[in-house]
Specification:
Pfam family, one: Epimerase
Radius of gyration: 20 Å
Protein name: NAD(P)-dependent oxidoreductase
InterPro entries: Epimerase_deHydtase, NAD(P)-bd_dom_sf
Number of helices: 9
Family: Belongs to the NAD(P)-dependent epimerase/dehydratase family.
Order of helices and strands: EHEEHEHEEEHEEHEEHEEHEEHH
CATH architecture of the largest domain: 3-Layer(aba) Sandwich
Structural class: alpha/beta
Helix content: 25-40%
CATH superfamily of the largest domain: NAD(P)-binding Rossmann-like Domain
Distance between the termini: 47 Å
Length: 305
């Protein structure tokens, strides 16, 4: 009999890759989905569910009694870091965890975030760097982390909290930094970016998914940074994309304001590596794959192909 796991957010940028990784490791994946559904595939069973409907969530969990849960769903739309929906998702997550506990739950993994940390320390370590979120999103996630860690401990549930850092890869939202730069380069348009002087920690979404599943399957509990552990300047990323796309136009540095003021933000990933995780994608390899995806996705609209 296959191992069964329930997942939320399985159709999102991270979730799709987590689902694929779980299936590749022999898990039978049951996914709670707010339409549209993901394409059908062997090993994936999908159920329509609005996680804000607490009665429906409770009824579903009573009927199915899952022992394993990976909760990735959250609001990721416009102004997601400040939106009031962060409060709704906080309550929905705590209800989901409570119902999971009441119906036989044994192992819970939630999606933490780099936004929980106090950025001014630069080098972020799970058990040493203070958490001091500057956004409602970060505060909501950190509040869940604190409550869930205590709640799971007192109820005998394994608690895992992969803290996800900056990521990139195929099918990321087109408004994000890398897709935006890639598409401008491929279309031969001027690239409008900030000064791009900051150093950040980027990891390919497939390496991120592997990290999340590695943490979930391991004996480790609590917060675990899912990151490369290597700082890279945003300017280096933009220049590498221009090189890989053979871009000959202008890069307009400082054309848009920088999103954050912290110059260096990088994570320590020793805890992640201690359970056997290894990064498979170098930045250049990951960018090449991502560029190829956008070439295929936008075929017919691009110039630099």
């Amino acid at each position: 009999m296959k191992k069964k796991v329930l997942i939320t957010g399985g159709t999102g940028f991270i979730g799709r890759n987590v689902v694929d990784e779980l299936i590749s490791r022999g898990w039978e994946v049951h996914s709670l989905v707010f339409p549209p559904f993901a394409p059908e595939k062997e090993g994936l069973i999908q159920y329509e569910m609005n996680l804000m409907d607490t009665d429906a969530v409770n009824k579903f969990l009573k009927e199915h009694n899952f022992e394993n849960l990976i909760h990735l769903a959250w609001y990721v739309g416009p102004k997601c870091h400040v939106h009031d929906l962060n409060l709704d998702w906080t309550l929905a997550t705590l209800n989901l965890l409570k119902s999971f506990k009441e119906n036989g739950g044994k192992r819970f993994a939630g999606a933490g975030t780099i936004s929980e940390y106090e950025y001014k320390y630069g080098y972020l370590l799970e058990d040493e760097t203070p958490t001091s979120p500057k956004t409602l999103y970060g505060e909501s996630k950190n509040s869940i982390y604190k409550i869930a860690s205590v709640y799971c401990k007192q109820n005998g549930i394994e608690f895992k909290w992969p803290r996800i850092f900056n990521l990139y890869g195929p099918a990321e939202k087109s408004q994000r930094l890398m897709p935006s730069v890639i598409n401008s380069c491929l279309k031969g348009e001027d690239v409008k970016v900030s000064d791009c002087l900051k150093f950040q920690d980027y990891l390919h979404v497939k390496d991120t998914a592997c990290g999340i599943v590695d943490v979930f399957e391991s004996d480790i509990e609590g917060a675990v940074n899912i990151c490369s552990g290597k700082p890279v300047q945003l300017r280096t990323i933009v220049e590498k994309i221009a090189e890989l796309t053979n871009f000959k136009g202008k890069i307009l540095w400082g054309a848009i304001p920088a999103a954050f003021g912290d110059e260096v933000v990088v994570g320590n990933n020793e805890k992640l590596k201690s359970i056997g995780w290894n990064q498979k994608y170098s930045l250049e390899e990951g960018l090449k794959e991502t560029i190829d995806w956008w070439k295929e996705h936008n075929k017919g609209e691009l110039l630099n192909v």
